[in-house]
Structures are given as C-alpha cells and as structure tokens.
Amino acid sequence: MAQDARIALFALGGTIAMTAAERGGVVPRLTGDDLVADLGDVPVAVEVKDAVPVPSAALTFSDVLDTVAAASRAVAEGATGIVLAQGTDTLEETAFLIDSVWPHDAPFVVTGAMRNPTLRGADGPANLLAAVQVAAAPTARGRGVLVVFLDEIHAARHVRKTHSTNLATFRSPDLGPVGHVIEGTPRFLAQLPARAPITGWTPERVAGTRIALYTVTLDDDGALLEGPDHSHQGLVVAGYGAGHVPTKLLPALDEILQVMPVVLTSRSGSGPVLAATYGAPGAERDLLARGLISGRFVHPLKARVLLRLLVAAEAGRDEITDAFGGLG
C-alpha cells in the first residue's frame, strides 16, 4: 500500500451504513466519516465524499453515473484511488456499469456489507479496510473496477451476488477471484484484458433509454413478448442453457428484431452462449442466424446494463456485437 496514496471514499448507504430505526428494522444512516472512524488508524489519506444514503434497491443509473463523474473529478484533483461503499442488492450491476465507463487507471473499488453494524460480527469495517488497501495499491492500477469482500478481490465484469444472506455471497463463477488481500497487501493472481470505456452516451440519453430483460421459463408461451413495445429500445433474452428458447417465442422475436437490438444470454448463471453446436429451431445457431446478438459470457443482468449504455451511445449492430465479444 503506497503511503502517499490519497483515497476518495463515496458512501451511498446500504447495509454497511445501516442503524436501528424507531419503527423497527434498520435503515441507512451512517455517513462516510462514521464508516472511516470504525477503521481505526489507516496509513493513507481518506477523503470522504458523502451522498444521500439509500438502500441499493433505490439506486438509479443516474445516481451511479453522477458518482462516476464525481470520482473523475476527485482523480483530477489528486486522488490516487476511489472506494465506493454501497448496498449489495444491485452491487454487481453498479460495479459493471462503472467498469463500462471508467476511463482512468486509478483503481475504483466497490464494497459493502452483508451484516449490518447492529449485529455481532458485522463485516462492513473489514470489507471497507480491505477496499481502501486495494485502492491504495499501485498494483491495482489499470485493472478496471474491482469488488472487494472478505479479503477477496473480484473483477466487476465477472462478479455476482450468489446468496441472499451469506457473507460469502460475492463470487465469480466463470473466473474466481483475481486476487486476495493478504496481511493488508493485495496479491493479484490474474490479469484481465483491459476494457475500453464506452463513450458517446450522455446522461440524458441513458436516462431516456429503456432495455427489457426477458427470462425464458418452462412451457413459455411468449405472450409477454407479443407486439414489440416502442417504449423500449432494446431487449435482453435470458435463454435456457447455452442460449435456447421455445419455438413459440420465435414469431415474437422475429418481429422485435425489426425494431430493436436483441441480445441472447444464458439464465444458467455461468458459462457462455454457444455459437455453432445446437441447430434445432430456437437453439443458438437458429437464433443467431435470425439476428440475435450473442451475449457470450455476460450475465443477463449485466447484459442489460451494457446494452443500455450502447443504445444510449447510438451504437450500431457491429459495435454492440464487438462490445459483448470483447468480454469473453
């Protein structure tokens, strides 16, 4: 950890910042200064940039992109690393959104907590300290956005929340952690290819872009897909297995393809969409031939994030295909 590091901490609320509410339960109330105070003596400078604390279920694209803009200003003013503390419900999506637009080599580390501060064994302080240690490390530069929980370092493009309550919820099924925090020092075990940030979007166009996510289910009749709705500008399909759908959905998908890009992903939770193995109607060969774009290894939730940015950037089919292809 570089002793001259300057870390900007953005605190957006979530479980890590929750305290008991008079009406019962817990609500986000702790500030970034409160969180840093729990860390004790940290050997690097941490400057707190508080925002309105909210549960992560209430976060919007605009909230996250505003935080990215503020983090960019902090880097321009001398911050050598960024830490974002937020709720975990949407963390895999927000981290991927940031990773898709972050233009700096400065580390951007996202963390949070699964056990709120009113409970014994709260994990927030340890996660936050590890996140600061990663953000302050020169070896973390140029690695894109990282997610740090339980001393594991995950790449934002692969990490997922895999359990509703377990402290070890954050996993990267297709890759595993890219590193670990050992005795306060990040040790990286893998280096992913760098991502070029998506450009050409504006906050206004992102806010006005709507992308639907449709998860295919057993005996699906496709009724929810019939008659493409022009209130959306793109569709992500979470298909069976390696990228398959029932044949009943094909007429609706053919119609939707005439008016918006459709990205094919797998609902399985890990593994890629195949390209050339299964040839029956509704299988991946058929769907890709009809014009669906392969989501490759990108999880449906993240595919929706990426497609929204790309549509807001007025990307064409080839650009969308390349963006997904570059992720696996």
Which short descriptors sum up this protein?
328 residues, alpha/beta, eight-stranded mixed β-sheet, four-stranded parallel β-sheet, 9 helices, globular
Structural features, described:
The structure is a single chain. The mean pLDDT is 93. Strand 6, helix 4 and strand 7 form a beta-alpha-beta unit. The chain is an alpha/beta fold. Helix content is 26%, strand content 20%. It has helices at 32-37, 61-76, 91-101, 124-135, 203-207, 250-256, 284-290, 300-312, 317-325, and strands spanning 6-11, 18-20, 26-28, 45-50, 81-85, 108-111, 145-149, 152-155, 160-161, 170-171, 179-182, 185-188, 211-215, 234-239, 262-266, 293-294. The protein contains 9 helices and 16 strands. The strands form 4 sheets. An 8-stranded mixed sheet has the order 4-1-5-6-7-8-11-12. The radius of gyration is 20 Å and the shape is globular. Helix 2 (61-76) crosses helix 3, helix 3 (91-101) runs parallel beside helix 8 (300-312) and helix 8 runs antiparallel to helix 9 (317-325).
Explain the layout of strands and helices.
Blueprint: E1 6-11, E2 18-20, E3 26-28, H1 32-37, E4 45-50, H2 61-76, E5 81-85, H3 91-101, E6 108-111, H4 124-135, E7 145-149, E8 152-155, E9 160-161, E10 170-171, E11 179-182, E12 185-188, H5 203-207, E13 211-215, E14 234-239, H6 250-256, E15 262-266, H7 284-290, E16 293-294, H8 300-312, H9 317-325
Parallel strand pairs: 1-4, 1-5, 5-6, 6-7, 13-14, 14-15, 15-16
Antiparallel strand pairs: 2-3, 7-8, 8-11, 9-10, 11-12
Helix pairs in contact: 2-3, 3-8, 8-9
